[in-house]
Structure to design on (565 residues):
């Protein structure tokens, strides 16, 4: 028999936790499904255990990380009181448009039917397709931060951070504080990016705390004696069996730095795998250079009964995500008859003001840290774009020359996007390359069709489901 | 490729990589334990046989696929270690799991 609940929430990061608390408070039955062993999502990973397990690291992770403690505590209290049914280690691999959810937990698959679903699947690091990025020793800056938060470990030997974005600076500073040997910070950000971002400064001053923090982080990295190279281009990871150096161009000169670990980053993008699989309409955000589900003011997506809260609906950061989660929670309570429209609106009004404050800095960040065009669509023909099937930028351009006008055709020609990650790591790049070649817009170029299961599920798990 | 900081109150557990004992911390994911143990690769790719290590650590890149307790193609960054766990590197393409 299929289990049922009023509301299912996918993801236990800030948006998912906040939505769950709000919905539980309205007296609805709520199940939270999360892939991780602890609540917090990636941003607040290990938030409920790090203070006890690793107090020094908890300190290094800073007040922005520890801000998650209050929400995690609130969430945990609701779980303990039986108001939230939190299921960790739960992987959702399919959602149907009649709101049936198919998931696996510890090798057992099951179904859950909800009256409404809040998708809070968050963000992922935007892929950084440069030559050599598949070599062992190269990984995401966010991935290294997860190693610090969850494994209490830092890169051994010289580490270089390269790319752009607030997280690049934050991880650089945290690794320094934790005693890692940060050899250099390579910024792709140019003077022209600063000039382009300057008009957004007055708006961003509403979120001036964030701005000040960014400037302070950069200063601390420099004061620690770490060289910061700005306006770099032609980044590549060099090595045979593992990365041995990073090569880059700065001011017309080619330089190389030896290293043990290269951490890449150029912002984060919504993880839209689930909203695409269920059939939600998505739109291209030309400023953030990513797709996001089309949502109304309450987070409702185009598929009836599905709302999206947090970075999965567009990048806004952890604090914005928690507020968006509460707003989606109020709407959910209203739709299920627990809150009048007037009450919902009254309670949402201060949250909307708070949300606007958190989002004030975004236009500046999005413009300043816009990835370079040649890192969105790598010029070098040999650069691997699809890590799973090892399809290169050159092969994709050849497919365009043969008549491929979109990612699904390229996939049929080349298998890109057909490997285990199902296009999560190549979809944006493949589309950017095709769009640059054909001159079509990203909307016209489109995106992969995402089919279930969106996570690996074994035949044994499928066979075990009660029909 | 990573080293542990001293600041860690979690107990140690032992897992096995291709039969060899590796020390991990309770609560680690298999991928984190591999990186902290400094191993050179967790798999080789089906297409070119190139070595890979975990890349994203959060379940999206699938570069950390390993055989864990007899089941191939598991995301090592999503599976927590357990004392006595048997982990194997994957070489090239894998069979479909039952």
């Amino acid at each position: 028999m299929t289990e049922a609940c009023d509301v299912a929430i996918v993801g236990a990061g800030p948006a998912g936790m906040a939505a769950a608390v709000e919905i539980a408070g309205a007296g609805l039955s709520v199940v939270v499904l999360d892939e991780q062993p602890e609540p917090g999502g990636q941003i607040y990973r290990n938030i409920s255990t790090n203070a006890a397990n690793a107090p020094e690291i908890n300190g290094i992770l800073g007040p922005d990380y520890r801000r998650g403690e209050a929400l995690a505590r609130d969430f945990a209290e609701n779980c303990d009181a039986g108001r939230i049914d939190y299921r960790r280690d739960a992987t959702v691999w399919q959602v149907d448009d009649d709101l049936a959810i198919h998931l696996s937990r510890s090798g057992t698959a099951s179904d859950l039917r909800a009256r409404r679903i809040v998708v809070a699947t968050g963000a992922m690091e935007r892929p950084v397709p440069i030559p050599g990025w598949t070599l062992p020793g190269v990984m995401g800056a966010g991935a290294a931060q997860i190693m610090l938060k969850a494994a209490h470990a830092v890169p051994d030997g010289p580490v270089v951070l390269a790319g752009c974005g607030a997280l690049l600076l934050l991880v650089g500073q945290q690794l320094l504080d934790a005693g890692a040997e940060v050899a250099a910070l390579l910024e792709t950000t140019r003077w022209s990016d600063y000039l382009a971002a300057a008009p957004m400064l007055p708006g961003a001053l509403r979120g001036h705390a964030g701005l000040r923090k960014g400037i302070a982080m950069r200063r601390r990295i420099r004061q620690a004696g770490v060289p910061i190279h700005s306006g770099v281009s032609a980044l590549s990871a060099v090595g045979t069996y593992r990365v041995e150096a990073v090569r880059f161009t700065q001011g017309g000169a080619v330089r190389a730095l030896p290293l043990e670990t290269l951490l890449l980053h150029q912002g984060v993008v919504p993880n839209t795998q689930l909203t695409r699989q269920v059939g939600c309409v998505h739109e291209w955000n030309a400023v953030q250079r990513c797709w996001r589900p089309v949502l109304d003011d309450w987070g409702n997506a185009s598929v009836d009964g599905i709302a999206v809260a947090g970075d999965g609906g567009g990048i806004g950061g952890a604090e914005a995500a928690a507020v968006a989660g509460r707003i989606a929670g109020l709407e959910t309570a209203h739709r299920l008859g627990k809150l009048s429209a007037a009450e919902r609106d009254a309670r949402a009004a201060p949250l909307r003001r708070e949300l606007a404050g958190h989002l004030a800095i975004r236009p500046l960040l999005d413009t300043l840290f816009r990835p370079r065009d040649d890192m969105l669509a790598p010029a070098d023909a040999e650069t691997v774009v699809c890590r799973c099937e090892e399809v290169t930028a050159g092969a994709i351009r050849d497919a365009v020359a043969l008549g491929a006008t979109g990612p699904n055709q390229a996939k049929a020609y080349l298998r890109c996007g057909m490997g285990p990650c199902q296009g999560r790591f190549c979809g944006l790049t493949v589309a950017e390359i095709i769009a640059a070649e054909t001159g079509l817009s990203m909307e016209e170029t489109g995106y992969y069709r995402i089919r279930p299961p969106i996570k690996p599920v074994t035949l044994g798990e499928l066979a075990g489901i009660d029909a | 490729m990573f080293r542990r900081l001293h600041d860690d109150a979690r107990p140690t557990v032992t897992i096995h990589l291709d039969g060899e004992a590796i020390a991990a911390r309770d609560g680690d994911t298999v991928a984190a334990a591999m990186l902290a143990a400094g191993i050179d690769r967790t798999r080789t790719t089906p297409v070119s046989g190139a070595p890979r290590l975990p890349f994203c650590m959060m379940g999206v890149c699938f570069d950390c696929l390993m055989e864990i307790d007899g089941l191939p193609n598991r995301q090592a960054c999503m599976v927590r270690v357990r004392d006595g766990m048997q982990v194997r590197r994957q070489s090239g393409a894998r069979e479909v799991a039952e």
Summary: Chain B touches chain A through 47 residues (CB under 8 Å). Residues 74 and 93 of chain B are 13 Å apart (CA to CA). DSSP finds one helix and nine strands in chain B.
